[in-house]
Specification:
single chain; about 350 residues; five-stranded mixed sheet; 1 helix; about 0% helix
Amino acid sequence: TIDEGGGVCVYMRASAADRVVPSGGANGGSSSLWPHPRSVREYASHRKKVHTVAWNCSGTKLASGSVDTSVRVWTIDEGGRASDVELKGHSDSVDQLRWDPKNEHLLGTASGDKTVRIWDARTSKCVHAIETRGENINIRWSPDGQHLAVGDKEDNISIIETRKCKALRTMKFPHEVNEMAWDPSGRLFFLTTGAGNVDVFSFVDLLKPPPAPPKPGDGSAAPAPAATLTGHTANCYCLEFSPSGERFAVGGADALVSLWDVKELACVATFARLEWPVRTLSFSHDSSYIAAGSEDPLIDVAHVATGKQALAVPVKAPSNSIAFHPKRMLLAFAGDDKDKMGRDEGSLRILGFPS
């Protein structure tokens, strides 16, 4: 549990495997659980495959990042008609991007070129380029938009203060670390690991100077977590909090999606319909659905309250990124799709516009 000051006062180890929700729903999902449009529209502009998609906080723009080093910002009207602008600056693959949760115009991007960039969508210009130690693969804003967390391929996590665009601390972890997220209060910092766990840190403790200064070029040793949540039998890859702030979900290499109670830090359900490692997760704006993408030929959309399959979205290739709209029942997604010649399509798709 979490005390009023944001500290973890009980260490909990809950096994998600003990709380498996049986597969349910017909192939394609249940019409009673998904009474929304099911048509899918394709949007193509990138020259290579799309690794990441994300809506801004107002839902007025969608961003996509690609192996082709570009970022595109899409303006999509109520009916699904779209225009896009290319943002140039990165020199390597853009592996993840996320919008500032408090500012609909600011976009953060993480790239293999060892930089993090912050863009102003009003001008389509990069307003800050921050050099990092390694090839970046994960990025996350704090709930108040004042910090960014960035993870690289060498298991370094950097905490960046966004006002001065300066790294406050870079931590080297002795094991694999993947996606990270703050809890809704911003007091706790959650980090998925290669051990099948989620480590929970006090964010204040993460910002404290290390006991011994690191050697030049090295990151400081990471502090011990305040709690470790055990729920998967293999690497945990992705992590998302529900907009309601009551739940968070974790996806792992064991093909499971575990659902957790935020206050109790206890696993309350597991969805086990997929057969391949879960790469990406997203909650709907009302927190009633959780979508999960993997190498399976479908995106599984679960009804959170019942655990049943509300919708199975067919895909032709492994999913790289999925993102529900913050205000409407629209789901953007992108994967490793190829054309008939075996070339990357460079497209993304959106489910939910009227046909």
